[in-house]
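Lab notebook: predicted structure, single chain.

Context: the supervisor wants predicted structures on file for every construct in the current expression panel, including those that have not yet been purified. This is the next one on the list. No modifications to the sequence; it matches the entry in the shared construct table.
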Amino acid sequence: MKRGDIVTGIVGNTTFPNHGHITVDGTKIRVKGVLPGQEVEVAIKRSSKEKAEGILRRVVTPSPLESETPACPQFGTCGSCTLQCMPYEEQVKLKEDHIRKLLSPAIRNADECAWLPIAGSPSSYEYRNKMEFTFGDEYRDGPLTLGQHKKGSMYDLVSAECCCLVDEDVRSIVRETLRYAEENGLPFYHKMRKEGYLRHLLVRKAKITGEILVDVVTTTQLEHDWSGWASKIAALPFAGQIKGVLHTVNDAAADTIINEGTSVLYGQDCITEKLLGLTFTISAFSFFQTNSEGAEVLYSAVRDRVLKVTGGSAGDAASQRGVIFDLYSGTGTIGQLLAPVARKVVGIEIVEEAVVAARANAELNGLTNCEFIAGDVLKKLDEVTERPDFIVLDPPRDGVNPKALTKILAYGVDHMVYISCKPTSLANDLGAIQDAGYRVVSVQPVDMFPQTPHCEVVVLLTKGT
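Prediction complete. Output recorded below exactly as produced.
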């Protein structure tokens, strides 16, 4: 078996996130993006005598799990959703199984800790409160498209006019923006040639409040007056309420949105969202959980873990007896939700804009016991004079910096909660955490991303036996 060979086989059990194996002529071939029981055609990417890695070409025969008719006509072509072919109850079962398989080998007391049932998302479709769409073409030199990347492609796009992860308000913004761009003959930005104008469309719609913020992102290679587009967007018959229309310029080479200057074309530059009774102001580039209803489930799980070990209840003055460190705090959402059960909350976040938002949101919510610090957790821990009684970790996808983790563990707090958006990073970090004398009390997956293989996990850790 060599690179480029095409083989077929039946996928056995899968692991997080939807990785599986087929066996051909005694060789085990690892394949990404597959489901148990599928017969798949695979192109060999690399191979040795014992194992190989392949790239999925097509599904020859569906899995018995694939009993759902996909809601989106782009399913199978778009790279964003891969589980629409499964009923939602089967999706969460699969994710729960994947998390247990992934974390069990990393948890030294796996047979004793509590494996809590996965918490599903209240909405399995139209749940996203933020989407970034890309301008481009469906194929080389094809017509202008506004959408998502095709599966396995860095350049080709599929239209987002029918995307099922957002609601009709967002889809109407996509259609109107594409129509406007076509009518005005505006060219998209070619990543390879580094030339062109249209780059992205960012839309935020708060699930609870219904407030909408729209931002078109372009280079500075052309001059264009976007006021006409802003008026068209503001006049659309939304179920929600349009609050602001923006234009951001971005000449950076990276294929991500980098704010190099934003102007307000209509209304204001932010919206508000409500979570568990608190109000949060969100700008175009603020970090905020993309599933508002799911975030309430996630943060309730975190708060429940804290209350479990403090012995109090939200708003109970008797439980307000400790200092909580909210590390990698983002816009301070978790810290503010925990403020009622803490004497003080100290949040540390490296993104300064997020810290500014956290401070403003704490003031908006009348919380006087929250302090948010801008800077790297590794460095700022040396400057904080308070010592924590409880630590909440919500690190970026790559997990906690090993040097920072050493400092965090040196506090020796009795209890910690680790919130992971990438469970493989959590599995890596658990080694050092357990070496420091902590054991895992409970594990709870929380599905924040229906129709995709991704999942968050909340882990409660306790010092000692």
